[in-house]
Amino acid sequence: MQKIYSIIVVTIALLFSIKGNAQELPESDILLPHTNDTAFIENDVIPLQIDSSKVNEISLDIQPIETEDTEEKRKKKKEKQNKNFKFSILGGPGYSPDYGFSIGLATLMTFSTDKGDTSLQRSVIPLNFTMSFGKPLGFTILSKPYIYFKGDKIRLQGLYEYKHTGENYYGVGYSLNHNIKRKKDITGYNADLLQINPVLLFRIKNGASYIGPVADLYFEKIKKPGSYVISDPYYIKQGGTAEGLTDINVGLGLSYSYDTRDIAANAYKGILFEARALFYSKYFGGEYNFGAITIDYRQYYKVSKTHRRVLAWNVLAKTKFGDIPFSQQAAVGGPFNLRGYYIGQYRDRTAVTAEIEWRHMWDIATDTKIKRLLHRLGYTAWAACGFMGENIVKYNAVLPNLGAGLRVEVQKRMNFRIDAGYSFADRHVLFYFNMTEAF
User: Which of 16, 60, 161, 239 is 20 to 30 Å from 272 at the Cα level?
Assistant: First the structure.
């Protein structure tokens, strides 16, 4: 546990020291140790001995130069602020409860596809790269972008991920998931996973509703499965052996979205209601025939008009039907849903989670360097609960959850987060490092 706290302290320190590509950003949009150039110069100036009788003369000579220099700085600062493309980069040691200690690199790119349209949300492309030091040595590349086109009439979003890591499989159903011991040679296996899940949405008339196609390509190759994995009936049914298993499934479907959020990546107000149906078929090039329905409701309420204090809540329901491969059963856990539970430890045909979160950014005056840094900090606290079972009515598991986190604003309304979630079912705390909010 002390190692985890050390990692958190080091990571926070790095947030205020890494400059990667800072020349492309306005000073207000990236964490730098010297965001005030004047203060930086003053710290390095060499005191001069001058004749007091010449003070007025010297002041008159110097004042025009200072004014010209100040105007030039203001001009450059304004040019930086008006730049369309903004890029933030953070890096350093990290920790993931599923993959252990790691070195991570998190980047955040924001831009407008139409700079002349001030009402258009800025597009957001977060990209997380993690090198984990478990067995095997692994890496993960993950992105969940939001891109807005043509007066917000077209949206492109989705999930894009590639992993070469060690994973764990605990079985299907709560009694198996809860009681099996997590260990490399029991529940573990090596995995190569590729998921490409684009969603293209078109606005309906001029309202807040969108509809469009969604696709999902899911490829997984399992190697060196543990003893429990090899003996699992779902694994055997899919053709898994002691040597491993290769599985590919392709789904096509439709997504509907009603979205009134002010900023999708970190909303202060508004509602998101999303309903999605996907059908996976051998006709599409996959190996199984099954379906998936997802309903996602999120709401955000800004408690104070003058402060950055938000109450957010989310209800997420996922249900699967048909011949479902074990790797694509409805699951909970991870950095975006029911934080505090291992990814996929609890899985079944249906999963429902409900979560409420308080988000608080400190509103501190920005007249000094320290205050400007503190102004970028905040915290969150949440309570959540998950339900697992064969269907939405018949559930066999209740998974309560509490947690809290630190927020660091790396660009305006774009946060880096460090979360700690507690699992009441398993009685442990898991830590998460990520860009953008969980929901």
Answer: 161
Q: What is d(CA 356, CA 379) in angstroms, rounded to the nearest whole number?
A: 14
What backbone torsions phi and psi does residue 275 show, to the nearest 5 degrees?
Answer: -125, 130
Name the residue among 213, 220, 216, 221 with its Cα closest to residue 292: 216
User: Which structural domain range is residue 101 located in?
Assistant: 2-25+83-435
- Burial of residue 130 (CB within 10 Å: 0-12, 13-18, 19+) is buried
The reply to whether 74 falls in a domain is no
Number of domains in the chain: 1
Domain contains 203: yes
Cα end-to-end distance, the chain, whole Å: 27
Place of tokens 């079972």: 389
- Residues 91-139 pLDDT 10s: 766 665 566 677 778 788 889 888 888 888 889 898 888 887 766 778 8
Q: How many CB atoms lie within 10 A of CB 327?
A: 21
326, part of any domain: yes
Residue located via tokens 């000579």 = 61
Return phi, psi of residue 59, to 5°. Answer: -60, -40
- pLDDT of the residue at 263: 87
Domain of residue 357, CATH code: 2.40.160.50
Contact of 116 with 42, CB cutoff 8 Å:
no
Query: What's the pTM?
Result: 0.74
For all residues of the chain together, what is the average pLDDT?
A: 81
